[in-house]
Specification:
The structure holds two protein chains of two kinds.
Chain A: H1 3-11, H2 15-23, H3 26-37, H4 40-57, H5 67-90, H6 94-98, E1 102-103, H7 110-115, H8 118-129, H9 132-143, H10 148-155, H11 159-179, H12 184-187
Helix pairs in contact in A: 1-2, 3-4, 3-5, 4-5, 5-10, 9-11, 10-11
Chain B: H1 3-13, H2 22-30, H3 32-49, H4 58-76, H5 90-96, E1 135-138, E2 153-159, H6 164-176, E3 182-186, E4 191-195, H7 201-213, E5 217-222
Antiparallel strand pairs in B: 1-2, 2-5, 3-4
Helix pairs in contact in B: 1-3, 2-3
The chains are: A mainly alpha, B alpha+beta.
Chain lengths: 193, 225
């Protein structure tokens, strides 16, 4: 069945059509969440939440962008909301930190860490160090390969803003990269990755 | 062409797969600083664009489908208003905005007689069990009223039992279905806390039953404050 037909069925409230349609995008959505949070646990949680959000909002999709770009918009907004929510809560968790507890970022288990290549683990580490806005623009442009116009739609800003944010984000990424001993060779461009 | 113009071009317009603008090429030929800049940009870009995709977990694949089915079912059923055990606390939440850390609360509501008007604090941790068994889920509540329901409860997963993967899955699903959950871990002590705010007693009780149904040994006790 064609995508447009499936979308129309979803908009009419057909959950089976939704499952068929989103099965084609589940990997994209999961990976997008994974790049924001850097671990499978959060990627699964936020990814599931994103699916529910998409199900609830699909009626609003009006075809002004591609369906894929629209999905990016929904998922990116959800990830950003989640990051903001966590920051707002963090002040309440001082007591736990005093007791030696740390937020469970990075990898849930050694198996999970081993599953990722060292290279992608290091990229994740640096991405986690960047401000949310810069992380977002790098994920969308340099990792996911979206066009400027698509990014402008996803972020709800103009092309000029996208370009200036991208410039700042790439610079920040390179600076962080240069501080990582493991990345020095890569950063100096002596090795092709 | 100025170095700053070249830099702007390299960081916004250019991608390694695209041929360099002729003017920029000429500049780079005579400017070692900009060439070094370009090499670094190319290295970083190549690194990012080569980031591999990960495979979604089985939990995610099954989880989103289940949740969408639940959403679809909700749309056809008139929602029944559910009374939360702690709903009376809400005005106090909004007034004092006190943080309530509720971790997989298991309640025996009548078993606790908490001191009245006592400040909120996390309870003392229980003794650690063996490495694989120390999934400690704790709760803390607030002292906003003089009712015993403000007690703290702790659910401690003493033994995972024979179906550890299912136990982990249940806990993970529990977390994901409560959007306030934040996972905290204490690597040295191999403990993990999940914090929730405004978690219903019924939900926590359901978690306990599910875990015990899988053969896990769960210890429930009120905490001393």
């Amino acid at each position: 069945m064609e995508e447009q037909t499936l979308i129309r069925l979803c908009q009419a409230g057909d959950p089976n059509a939704f499952e068929t349609l989103l099965a084609n995008y589940e990997k994209i959505i999961y990976n997008l969440a994974f790049k924001y949070f850097g671990n499978h646990h959060d990627a699964s949680d936020v990814g599931q939440e994103a699916m529910v959000r998409i199900y609830q909002k699909i009626k609003d999709f009006n075809g002004n962008s591609s369906f894929k770009t629209w999905l990016y918009r929904v998922v990116v907004n959800l990830c950003m909301d989640e990051l903001r929510r966590r920051k707002n809560q963090s002040h309440s968790l001082d007591e736990l930190k005093e007791q030696g507890f740390e937020p469970a970022t990075a990898y849930d288990s050694p198996e999970e860490a081993a599953e990722l290549s060292e290279k992608s683990a290091m990229i994740q580490e640096i991405l986690q160090m960047l401000p949310d806005e810069q992380r977002t623009i790098l994920i969308l442009k340099d990792i996911e390969g979206l066009e400027y116009t698509e990014i402008a739609y996803v972020l709800g800003c103009n092309m000029g803003t996208v370009k200036s944010r991208l410039s700042r984000a790439r610079e920040a990424f390179r600076k962080k990269l240069a501080t990582q001993p493991r990345f020095n060779i890569l950063a100096e461009g002596r090795v092709q990755v | 062409m100025k170095c700053s113009t070249v830099y702007k071009y390299l960081t916004t317009e250019w991608e390694p797969s695209v041929a360099l603008d002729e003017e920029v090429q000429n500049h780079l030929a005579g400017c070692s600083l900009c060439r070094a800049e370009q090499t670094q940009i190319e290295g970083a870009f190549t690194l990012l664009s080569s980031m591999p995709q990960v495979e979604p977990t089985a939990e995610f694949r099954a989880g989103w489908r289940n949740r969408v089915r639940e959403e679809a079912a909700k749309a056809t059923v008139v929602p029944e208003k559910r009374l939360k055990w702690n709903s009376w606390l809400k005005p106090a939440y909004s007034l004092a905005f006190l943080f309530i850390a509720v971790v997989a609360v298991i309640g025996y509501q009548n078993s606790v007689h908490a001191p009245k008007n006592e400040a909120l604090h996390m309870a003392e941790k229980g003794p650690a069990v063996s490495q694989e068994q120390t999934m400690v889920l704790r709760s803390a509540a607030v002292d906003v009223t003089d009712t015993a329901d403000t007690a703290l409860y702790e659910l401690k997963l003493v033994e995972v039992g024979p179906r550890s993967r299912d136990v982990q899955r249940i806990i993970r699903n529990f977390r994901s279905s409560h959007e306030e959950g934040i996972v905290f871990s204490h690597k040295a002590k191999n403990e993990e806390w999940t914090l929730f705010r405004d978690l219903s007693f019924e939900d926590a009780e359901r978690l306990r039953k599910e875990l015990e149904g899988l053969g896990a040994r769960v210890e429930v006790k009120p905490l001393t404050r």
